[in-house]
Design brief:
The complex is a heterodimer. Chain A is α/β, with parallel strands linked by helices. Chain A folds into two domains: 8-37 and 158-304, Rossmann fold (3-Layer(aba) Sandwich); 44-141, Rossmann fold. In chain A, 39% of the residues lie in helices and 17% in strands. Chain A has helices spanning 44-57, 74-86, 100-108, 122-135, 148-165, 180-192, 237-251, 257-276, 303-310, and strands spanning 16-18, 28-34, 66-70, 89-95, 112-116, 140-141, 171-175, 197-203, 231-235, 280-286. In chain A, strands 1-2-10-7-8-9 form a six-stranded mixed β-sheet. Chain B is α+β, with helices and mostly antiparallel strands. Chain B has one domain (3-86): Ubiquitin-like (UB roll). In chain B, a hairpin with a 2-residue loop joins strand 3 and strand 4. Chain B is globular, with a radius of gyration of 14 Å. Classes of the chains: A alpha/beta, B alpha+beta. At the A-B interface, helix 4, strand 8, strand 9 and helix 9 of A face strand 3, strand 4 and strand 5 of B.
Chain lengths: 316, 104
Amino acid sequence: MARFDSLLDSLGDTPLIGLPRLSPTDDVRLWAKMEDHNPTGSIKDRAAFWMVQAAEKDGVLQPGATILEPTSGNTGISLAMVAKLRGYRLICVMPENTSTERRQLLQMYGAEIVFSPAAGGSNQAVAVAKEMAAAHPDWVMLYQYGNPANVAAHYETTGPELLRDLPSITHFVAGLGTTGTLMGTGRYLREHVPGVQVIAAEPRYGELVYGLRNIDEGFVPELYDAGVLTARFSVGPREALRRTRELVEKEGIFAGISTGAILHTAIAAAERAVAAGERADIALVVPDAGWKYLSTGAYGGTLAEAEQALDGQLWA
Amino acid sequence: MAIEVRIPTILRSYTGGSKAVEAEGGSLAALIDDLDSRHPGLKARLVTGDGALHRFVNVYVNDEDVRFTGALDTALKDGDAVTILPAVAGGSRSGGGTSRGGGL
């Protein structure tokens, strides 16, 4: 059934697409979960809608309420869409110098933007949002890093969709940010697939992003439970860019840069399975398409030029 | 045996500003002891009094998080690359940075 009563009704149930040219053998296969097929074109639509629905059900979100969220990324755009359709005001706290595409998309949906210092990346946005929330008790901070509904969205939808479409799944690979995708999908798969591997691909940014004053200013999302994962890999911009381009060249899929980091990690898992002589069906998440990243220069010029252009940016 | 250790900005006061230093050790624990002998004070920033990795410190051996490979007991061999990073919030994007070292 591909007919829906409204945009939000069309959320989720995204296609799982085989990657025959990137899969090393017939026994070790890669599958891409195409989250760009969601209403605003990213996986964050799931978390945003689930968080709003949960807050409405709990009575926290009343008609006309103001939502506050630390995000410069896809969650902000997803929340802006849901807020517009449900009649809420949205204020996004995001690091300054954020890309034009982000700002334009948020403003198009009617969200207000408060900027936080670029140094320290999203840590600063989280800190500023928490201060603002304390000063405005009537505002509702959904707080994607600690909201169980973020995990529930993936436990209730992404996980079951994957198992339905790929019952022989052996590995699940996704990006690590709020950790919601990995915690929710990972928990569901672990409960239903004995021995399944749940692997995190963590983007490694330029130094500016790690520019804390003190180690104790570090941040681990409240949702994170290391026990759900079986492995966690750090992927730098060079590999992420190389794989993002490889995905276009070999499979025709135009994805965002975080997909490259996830694909890099998934291909490494595939190579380990081949070396071990094991069968594998590896599902990897494509969080969004490449449109919002065109201005970064990621898709043109040499890899070195693209890497330089990405330096200092939170590219995933 | 020499292992390259990448040091984050926030800890370079211990390495005289060096982004990467060399150290030796057959395990991560031994490597950190060796690092501390060359750069005194560094160990206390990485390992808690209880002998565990600091909550906000992530250590990767050849890009894999050591918390999934035995933590401080993770075995090391010549040519391994160790990266130390503070834990930060991700999942969003900003631009306009002036720093170098995207590969760190």
